[in-house]
Structures are given as structure tokens and as C-alpha cells.
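Folding Task

Wanted — backbone structure
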Amino acid sequence: MLAGDEQAVASLLVEEPAGIADERRRYLMQTAVRRDRDIVEELRDIYAGECQICGWAPRRTYRTELCEAHHVRWLSRGGIDGLQNLTLVCPNHHRAIHRCDAPFDFERAAFVFPGSMEPLARLRHTLSAD
């Protein structure tokens, strides 16, 4: 998220002991995958800020964006940072997906949890495993 933002990285590292800060700076500036924030805004516009699973609509209720973009195939597992690899989910579903390491079933357009499946109730863009 901070990759390439020298000022943001520097502010995170102010209090860190010598050595750790250098290594962390190297990771954040060179290794961490850069993410395109414009794609997230496009996704939010497609779904009017609503969770694709449960329909929670914080934009309407609170007048702010609270739903988060989730990479269906995680970046850390080789996924791309593109619209075809993103879903918009509420913080609760996002945490559950990560905590349960829930894979996405492309045929059913659903996240698979131990003992249950959470299908996308809203799907207005194409998702792809590639």
C-alpha cells in the first residue's frame, strides 16, 4: 500500500531501531507490490460502495467509503492488481476471508469457508483467475 511513497514510509520508520528501519524501507520501496488506487475507486463506483457479499452500504448510511478491495487471488500468491482480480467487501467479510484463508470458487462466484460458502450477491464486473 505504501510502496513507492517515500514520505509515508519515512513516517512509519521514525521510531524504529537502526537496521530494522533500513530493511523495512528496502522492502516497502522495492519489494512490496504497488497497488493502483484508481482501480479501487473504479470498483467502489461500480458497486456504489456496497459489499458484494452482504450489500452493506456505508456510503449511503455514513457518507463515507468503508468497504475494502480484496484481491481474489492474493498478491502474495501471485495475483495481479487489476479489476478482474478484485472484489469489494465490508471489513467483516474481508477479515473473515483472510482469517479463514477462504479461497474463491470462480464457477460459483463465492468464497469458500470451512463449512459454508459466501456467494457474491452483486457481480457487475468480470472476475478472472488469471
The chain has a mean pLDDT of 86.
